[in-house]
């Protein structure tokens, strides 16, 4: 068994995201299609036997604001639920931008639960990890499996889908931090006038294996920001989406509650050219592709 493990915690895009309504617990019911992508944070874990007395070491680069580490929160929850008492050393290279709708913090949290479960030798069943994951955030359960999924509820009802093949995704971030609670609050104040009719689930799922140029997907947050966002937000999203389309994207959208936009390309060379053109203009641009089924990938044992 390994005492150390290096993993890649992937980012995701929501190629479809509808906010169906506010619930009595303050969360919102969603309908979304998640895709895990082959680009993520690199996390190295080491776990020590409980009899070795040493402090935990968690180093995250670039540094996060104090109290903001989803990795530290996941370690602490794992300890309190399982009684696991070994020290941990974790080094994280954060490559996924923050507040970007790409699920970086959630993916890191899921990777932490999964790796601690393995390195501690406890091997809890997946449903227990799922329970812990939901306590850490609505997007965390998805990352335990990754791949592609039709997701409802708060984010915890996950139906795996076959990921689309041979598609290239170019992520583009305008350099705006988009807070999730603030985005949902804006939706509560304005959203009811924006909601449109829902498509049947079967139609949404079927479309995933079809041509992205005719995908029926939409993101309610994008509609919200384009009509009610600040001038800088409206301008940023409009320009990126127009540029992606002009550069040959077959589909373009917004991930999560922002701020990363994405273009979907059938042709790799067109995607490469688009990435190159966009890197020079925006704070972050990255070409990647949907992961086949898995999420968190072991790089080194
Ligand atoms: O679950 P998570 O901690 O990631 O959610 C952050 C915030 O986003 C919540 O406090 C809530 O305001 C909002 N949220 C929501 N409905 C969801 C997911 C998130 O209202 N399904």
From TrEMBL:
<keyword id="KW-0547">Nucleotide-binding</keyword>
<keyword id="KW-0067">ATP-binding</keyword>
<keyword id="KW-0418">Kinase</keyword>
<protein>
    <recommendedName>
        <fullName>4-diphosphocytidyl-2-C-methyl-D-erythritol kinase</fullName>
        <ecNumber>2.7.1.148</ecNumber>
    </recommendedName>
</protein>
<comment type="function">
    <text>Catalyzes the phosphorylation of the position 2 hydroxy group of 4-diphosphocytidyl-2C-methyl-D-erythritol.</text>
</comment>
<dbReference type="GO" id="GO:0019288">
    <property type="term" value="P:isopentenyl diphosphate biosynthetic process, methylerythritol 4-phosphate pathway"/>
</dbReference>
<feature type="domain" description="GHMP kinase C-terminal">
    <location>
        <begin position="226"/>
        <end position="281"/>
    </location>
</feature>
<comment type="similarity">
    <text>Belongs to the GHMP kinase family. IspE subfamily.</text>
</comment>
<dbReference type="InterPro" id="IPR014721">
    <property type="entry name" value="Ribsml_uS5_D2-typ_fold_subgr"/>
</dbReference>
<dbReference type="InterPro" id="IPR006204">
    <property type="entry name" value="GHMP_kinase_N_dom"/>
</dbReference>
<feature type="active site">
    <location>
        <position position="139"/>
    </location>
</feature>
<dbReference type="Pfam" id="PF00288">
    <property type="entry name" value="GHMP_kinases_N"/>
</dbReference>
<dbReference type="InterPro" id="IPR013750">
    <property type="entry name" value="GHMP_kinase_C_dom"/>
</dbReference>
<dbReference type="InterPro" id="IPR004424">
    <property type="entry name" value="IspE"/>
</dbReference>
<dbReference type="GO" id="GO:0005524">
    <property type="term" value="F:ATP binding"/>
</dbReference>
<dbReference type="Pfam" id="PF08544">
    <property type="entry name" value="GHMP_kinases_C"/>
</dbReference>
<keyword id="KW-0414">Isoprene biosynthesis</keyword>
<dbReference type="InterPro" id="IPR020568">
    <property type="entry name" value="Ribosomal_Su5_D2-typ_SF"/>
</dbReference>
<dbReference type="GO" id="GO:0050515">
    <property type="term" value="F:4-(cytidine 5'-diphospho)-2-C-methyl-D-erythritol kinase activity"/>
</dbReference>
<comment type="pathway">
    <text>Isoprenoid biosynthesis; isopentenyl diphosphate biosynthesis via DXP pathway; isopentenyl diphosphate from 1-deoxy-D-xylulose 5-phosphate: step 3/6.</text>
</comment>
<feature type="binding site">
    <location>
        <begin position="97"/>
        <end position="107"/>
    </location>
    <ligand>
        <name>ATP</name>
    </ligand>
</feature>
<feature type="active site">
    <location>
        <position position="12"/>
    </location>
</feature>
<dbReference type="InterPro" id="IPR036554">
    <property type="entry name" value="GHMP_kinase_C_sf"/>
</dbReference>
<feature type="domain" description="GHMP kinase N-terminal">
    <location>
        <begin position="71"/>
        <end position="147"/>
    </location>
</feature>
<keyword id="KW-0808">Transferase</keyword>
<dbReference type="GO" id="GO:0016114">
    <property type="term" value="P:terpenoid biosynthetic process"/>
</dbReference>
